[in-house]
Write a structure and sequence with these properties.
- The protein is an alpha+beta fold.
- The chain contains 15 helices and 16 strands.
- Strands 1-5-6-11-10-9-7-8 form an eight-stranded mixed sheet.
- The chain is elongated and about 90 Å long.
Length: 419
Amino acid sequence: MISLPKGTKDVLPHEAYKWHYVENVVRDVAAEYCVDEIRTPTFEHTELFARGVGDTTDIVNKEMYTFDDKGGRSMTLKPEGTAGVARAFIEHSLYADAQPTKMFYITPVFRYERPQSGRLREHHQFGVEYYGSASPAADVEVISLLRTVYKRLGIKALKLHLNSIGCRECRKDYNAALKEYFGAHIDGMCPTCRDRLDKNPLRILDCKEEACRKIVKGAPVVLDYLCDDCRAHHAAVCAGLDALGVDYVVDPGIVRGLDYYTRTVFEFVTEDIGAQGTVGGGGRYDRLLEDIGGKACPAVGFGTGIERIILTMEAQGLPFGREPRPTVYIAPIGEAERVEASKISFELRRAGIACDTDIVGRGFKAQMKYADKTRARYLVVVGGDELASGIFKVKDMDNGTETAVSRCDLAAFFGKTEK
């Protein structure tokens, strides 16, 4: 037997409605914020992620699914959604449109990492990207959009952790301070962080190794090194969230795992899904477009894992709306009635009624058992008497009551029950 690849997951028919529920909510919220959908390819040129995500990140160094195509070009399955959207923004000259450009996506992403609860090698992200606004108001709106999604889904006990990692200019002094501090502790750090010390000391703050985490606790705090502009931007973001009544904690330890971030970074964290408690996060990336060959353009956005949302909702016992079930099951008594049952089913489906009927040749008793398993709300038996009179008994499977309905009124009857 060929089994499922490690780090992937089948979404079975009885689970799919949960995904539909979450995706419908995020699409509704995106529409309320006037954010339009974008869809980018599943794979891109490897250079896009090396330049955009950062060649010192774990994603680029360890986790990407990279291959040479038949033309000898290096391609990579997208490990995150932002870089592809940035490429599309440049390639299709979206910067020439009225700004800001506000886009969202729901996409699979691929990372070769150790599978954990809610963290798969193929997972799915809902992401939002705002281009063309350097204002703190854009940061606040993006954060409030994601918070609205979580609130609309009913998710509780989420904490917003907020930080600023400054711009590339004020970060020079911070990087120098980090190098000095971590240089004095290099013997106690993991091999990866020793390598990061010269290349990108900021990445050490994001290390998950326990020895490094202990050292990080005494590291210099980025907020102490912000330039005047970055400090003012951070203060304005905090003030904007305060004005909306959004609770948050300023957490200097939040740096995110991607090199393109500047200034604002944030995460929504829960304790309901284990140690890896980040449900979603994002921040500002004002230099990303330049890094991948475009003109300077400010940007801010986020990504949140669909699997992590569902896992959190399940842990909190939250509903996913009504699980789909047939409105009506049409049961022919015998072979002579099957054609008529099929015709009635076709007419009801054409009227928008969720209708099921036998297509495998079950006997009548077996159909009754099957209808019960499908949890059909109503049952209509098609027999000789019904065909002769044109009157059908509609049985409510929830309470056992029966209603006599003429053939021509069946669609109208079930249409009312659907509302």
